Amino acid sequence: MGMNNGAEKDLEKLNTDGIVDEEAQDEPGPAAGEESQGAVEVEPSGEFTDAGDAGGDEAVDNDPQILRKQLAEQTKQADENYDRLIRLQADYDNFRRRTRQEKEDIYKYSSEQLITAILPVLDNFDLALSAEGNTVESFKAGMQMIYKQLLDVLAAEGFAQIPAVGEQFDPEKHEAVQRAESAEHPDNTIIEEFRRGYYLKDKVIRASMVKVVKS
Asked: 32 in a domain, yes or no?
C-alpha cells in the first residue's frame, strides 16, 4: 500500500506540471520581428510622439515653392544692400573730393585776407608817388603815414617788431654780428640794430641783426 501511495503522488505531480506547460504553450504571443501597431516612440527629451510625424518638417523645408519664395526674398534683400553700398561709396568719394578741393583752396588763397587789407596802403603809395610839387618834407611825412598804416594792417595779423636796442641779447630773437666794448652798458647789452627782426604772433620769423657789448 505504501508504494501505491507514493506512485500516485508522483503521477499527480507529473500531470500538474504537464498542464501548466501546455497552458503556457497555448497562449498566443507576438511573432518574432513583428511590431505592434500604433507603437509609441520616446524622444530623448522624454516626450512621446508618433513615429508617423517624423519627416513632416523636412518635407516642408524641401517644398520647391517655399524654397523659390525664400530665394526671391534673399535676392531682393541682397540687391537692396548692394544699391545702398553703391550710394554710400559715391557719397564718400564726393566728400573726399570736396574736402581735398577745400584744402587746396585754403593753401592757395590763404593770403587773400592779408592782401585785401594791404590794398589801401598800395593806393596811398600810388597817390604819394603821383603827386607833383611836393617838398621833401611833405613827401617824407606822407611816407611815414603810409608806413604806419602798413604796420597797423600787419599788426592786426599778429605781426610785430622784436625789441632790440637796450635789451639783453637773446640768441632765440637776436643774431649778434658785432661785439664791442662799452663802459656805459652792462655785458650782453644790445647797443645797435642793423636789421630789424619780427614776430608773427609768438613765433620769431626773422631774428634781429645786432651789435652786443662784450666784457
From this structure: no
Task: Look up the domain containing 174 and give its range.
Answer: 159-215
Average pLDDT in the 114-121 region?
91
**pTM (2 d.p.):** 0.52
Residues 119, 97 within the same domain: no
Total of domains in the chain: 3
User: By C-alpha distance, which of 182, 114, 121 is closest to 154?
Assistant: 114
Q: Are residues 164 and 180 in the same domain?
A: yes
Instruction: Tell me how far CA of residue 211 lies from CA of 82, 118, 161, 183, 186, in angstroms.
Output: 74, 33, 17, 15, 13
Are residue 150 and residue 181 in the same domain, yes or no?
A: no
Tell whether 153 is covered by a domain.
Answer: yes
pLDDT single digits (tens) 9-48:
554 554 555 444 444 444 455 444 444 444 444 444 444 4
Task: Tell me the pLDDT band of 211, cut-offs 50, 70 and 90.
Answer: very high
User: Do 209 and 195 touch, CB atoms closer than 8 A?
Assistant: yes
Residue 43 CA to its chain's centroid (Å): 52
Cα–chain-centroid distance for residue 145? 54
